[in-house]
Amino acid sequence: MARSGKDGDRRLKTAKKRTASSQRWLERQLNDPYVKQAKADGYRSRAAYKLLGMDEKFDLLKGVRRVVDLGIAPGGWAQVVRRKAPGASIVGIDLLETDEIEGVTILQMDFMDDKAPAALEAGLDGAPDLVLSDMAANTVGHKQTDHLRTMGLVEAAVHFATETLEKDGAFVAKVLAGGTDKDLLDLLKKHFRTVKHTKPPASRKGSSEWYVVAQGFKGRAGQEPD
C-alpha cells in the first residue's frame, strides 16, 4: 500500500484476480470519509448519513412513532431512526438478509410480493407516519432499463405510502438523475402538501441518485390524524 504525495489518497496494489472496477470501488471505499465516519459512529453503512442529512434539512424524524423502511439492508437507516426517535416502532423489508437490530422488525422478502404490504402493516401497531425507501433495482448495465426498473420500485413505494400513511405523514424515496417521473410527481403532489427533490451531502458527487421528499400527507377520504 502506498500514498500519493499529492493528496494522500490511499492506493491498493492490484491483485491478480481483482477487476479494474472492483479495484476502483475498494480505493473509493478506503478514501471515503463517510465510510470512515460510519465505522466510528457504529453505523452499518455510509447511507446513514444520507438520512441524517435529509433529517437535518426536512425534520423527517421529529416526533415519528411508526416507520417503514423499504430496502432496509444493511440497516443504516433503521439505526438512524432508532437513535433519533428511540420510542418509534420500525419495520423493514429487504430481499437480502439483514442482521438483527434491537427494536426493529425485519422481514426478508420481496417488497413486490403481493403479501408484503400486509406483512409490513402487521409489523406496526398502527398506520406509519413515515415511509422510507432506499430501494434500487439491480442494474443490468442498460441505462434505460435500469432506470425503468428502479422507477418501478419507486412507483410501488408511492402507492404503498398513499394507501397506508397516517394523515400528515411523510414519504422519502431514492430516485435517479432527473428526479421523479412526471406521472409519479403529479401523484405525490396530489397526496402531499410539499414535494421536493434533494441530493444529500453524503450522496457521492458522481452518483445519479437523488431523493424525493414528500411531506404533509393529505390523507384518504374520511381519514383523521391518529
TrEMBL record:
User: One MF term from GO for this chain?
Assistant: rRNA (uridine-2'-O-)-methyltransferase activity
Binding-site list for S-adenosyl-L-methionine: G75, W77, D94, D110, D134
Cite a single Pfam family from the UniProt record: FtsJ
Q: Establish whether keyword rRNA-binding is in the entry.
A: no
Taxonomy, superkingdom: Bacteria
Task: Cite the entry's keywords alphabetically.
Answer: Cytoplasm, Methyltransferase, rRNA processing, S-adenosyl-L-methionine, Transferase
Region Disordered: start and end of each range? 1-24
Cellular compartments annotated: Cytoplasm
Got a GO cellular component term for this one? cytoplasm
> What catalytic reaction does the record list?
uridine(2552) in 23S rRNA + S-adenosyl-L-methionine = 2'-O-methyluridine(2552) in 23S rRNA + S-adenosyl-L-homocysteine + H(+)
Q: Where is the composition biased (Basic and acidic residues)?
A: 1-12
Q: Does the keyword rRNA processing apply?
A: yes
Q: What is its EC number?
A: 2.1.1.166
SUPFAM superfamilies listed in its UniProt record? S-adenosyl-L-methionine-dependent methyltransferases
- Say which family it is in: Belongs to the class I-like SAM-binding methyltransferase superfamily. RNA methyltransferase RlmE family.
PANTHER family referenced in this protein's UniProt entry, alphabetically:
RIBOSOMAL RNA METHYLTRANSFERASE (PTHR10920), RRNA METHYLTRANSFERASE 2, MITOCHONDRIAL (PTHR10920:SF18)
The name this protein goes by in its record = Ribosomal RNA large subunit methyltransferase E
Q: Which organism is it from?
A: Alteraurantiacibacter aestuarii
Lineage, highest ranks first: Bacteria, Pseudomonadati, Pseudomonadota, Alphaproteobacteria, Sphingomonadales
Chain's gene name: rlmE
